[in-house]
Amino acid sequence: MGCTTTKKTEQVLEAMNWYFGARECRSITFVDDTAGDQEDLYLDLNAIDENYEEKQFYVWLDAGTGTDPMIAGKTGIQVVYTSGDSASAISALAQIAISALPEFEGTATAGVLEVENKFLGEITLEDYSNAGTISSVVNQAGFGGLLGAIAQGGGTVNTSQELEDIKSDSTGEIILDQIIKGSSVNIDLTLLEMNTERWESLIGEGYGAKEGSSVGYGTSKLYKSSFDFAGMLSGHPVRLPLSDRSADVTLWKTAPNMNSISYSGSEVQSAEFSFVGLKDATKPTTIDLFARGDHSLL
């Protein structure tokens, strides 16, 4: 007789914390080294870690005789290169050093290094005052964070497949096949903490707009693309540590649409939002609308 028991079901109560925003992404342009003139240059690189807290780094160039600037409160990323290296070679070496960290993903092309943070959120402005002629352009500013308390009942992931039935005259109404014409995913959430910050970030920066101290809806965004203000929505199970993202659910690109908000003297205020998944061309076509799993790997 054994003394162990076997779990009979895989059902769970899956409460989630929800995060909305964007990952910071910037392009860093390096220059050719001439007789070691790029050595000891350094620049900021700030990240959001898996706990959705900011971590600050600096990248410094070393041609073999460099000196680490040892900036207080920041972690150094050493890029060792050879005097006389081209911008392409230096950017490729920087890409290797930076991508080795769990907070960043980098791609180097012809002297330009694109670095994207792996987690969404706003970062401190990066300092290039000690970077010489190395320059940077922000492609996507990081913003957002935890959406706060969600109404009982949680979030709902809704999926839909648009199918074309294939029939023939000889078989009548029997469906011979179905051709996929489209697919859609949206997540519905009811937020319980609609403070000024969320009015500004979810509505003012979304389908609505800001005017002075006011936030509302108008005609200023007519005919504009939702990609102009889209972000990423990710849900993480409360039962798992933040380091375990195996059951996270993510819409890569989406914009928050507030369907309604309640005003009552007897009930807690709630705002109903719908997040519709948009195709993200930077992700594999197999999961470019929605994914369950570790979003930091893509």
What are the key terms here?
2 helices; 5-stranded antiparallel β-sheet; 298 residues; 4-stranded antiparallel β-sheet; mainly beta
3D structure, described in words:
This protein has helices at 87-99, 196-204, and strands at residues 16-22, 25-29, 42-48, 54-62, 75-80, 104-109, 112-117, 135-140, 143-146, 156-166, 177-191, 209-211, 214-216, 231-237, 249-254, 256-261, 271-276, 290-292. The chain is mainly β and 298 residues long. The model has no long low-confidence stretch (mean pLDDT 95). It is built from two helices and 18 strands. A five-stranded antiparallel β-sheet has the order 9-1-14-15-18, with no helix packed on it. Strands 6-7-2-8 form a four-stranded antiparallel β-sheet, with helices on one face. It folds into two domains: 24-141, no CATH class; 156-297, no CATH class.
**Helicity, as a percent range:** under 10%
Spatial order of the strands in the main sheet?
A: 9-1-14-15-18
Global Rg: 24 Å
Largest sheet: 5 strands, antiparallel
DSSP summary: helix tally: 2
Distance between the termini: 47 Å
